[in-house]
């Protein structure tokens, strides 16, 4: 699985995601990607974490391998397109601090790799 954080500049420099339980995976973090850069850099990505960058239908269309999006708040992902494409969308609970968000996101990915999705919207 390839996992990409598309806008980690929204976190303080001291915040890091914990390690996944999975033995094999690729992990990329970008400070901030434009919609064009998301298509160019994430076309092999299976899981995207977005802290505030929107993923409209035209961006999702450029991500053929995408299976899961973890969003930090409502309205970041075009849910209609996600449903049509079979992409699971998981929204983290509101009010999480940065470190708790990272921990919850990693646990959500671990669960997804085990066949279940936490905080699932679609």
Automatic annotation (TrEMBL):
<dbReference type="GO" id="GO:0016616">
    <property type="term" value="F:oxidoreductase activity, acting on the CH-OH group of donors, NAD or NADP as acceptor"/>
</dbReference>
<dbReference type="GO" id="GO:0051287">
    <property type="term" value="F:NAD binding"/>
</dbReference>
<feature type="domain" description="D-isomer specific 2-hydroxyacid dehydrogenase catalytic">
    <location>
        <begin position="30"/>
        <end position="95"/>
    </location>
</feature>
<protein>
    <recommendedName>
        <fullName>D-isomer specific 2-hydroxyacid dehydrogenase catalytic domain-containing protein</fullName>
    </recommendedName>
</protein>
<dbReference type="InterPro" id="IPR006139">
    <property type="entry name" value="D-isomer_2_OHA_DH_cat_dom"/>
</dbReference>
<dbReference type="Pfam" id="PF00389">
    <property type="entry name" value="2-Hacid_dh"/>
</dbReference>
């Amino acid at each position: 699985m390839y996992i990409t954080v598309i806008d980690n500049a929204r976190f303080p420099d001291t915040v890091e995601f914990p390690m996944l339980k999975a033995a094999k995976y690729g992990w990329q973090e970008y400070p901030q990607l434009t919609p064009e850069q998301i298509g160019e850099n994430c076309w092999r990505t299976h899981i995207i974490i977005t802290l505030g960058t929107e993923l409209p239908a035209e961006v999702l269309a450029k991500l053929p391998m995408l299976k899961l999006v973890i969003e930090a708040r409502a309205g970041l992902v075009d849910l209609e397109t996600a449903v049509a494409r079979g992409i699971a969308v998981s929204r983290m609970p509101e009010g999480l601090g940065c470190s708790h968000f990272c921990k919850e996101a990693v646990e959500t990915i671990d669960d997804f790799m085990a066949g279940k999705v936490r905080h699932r919207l679609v």
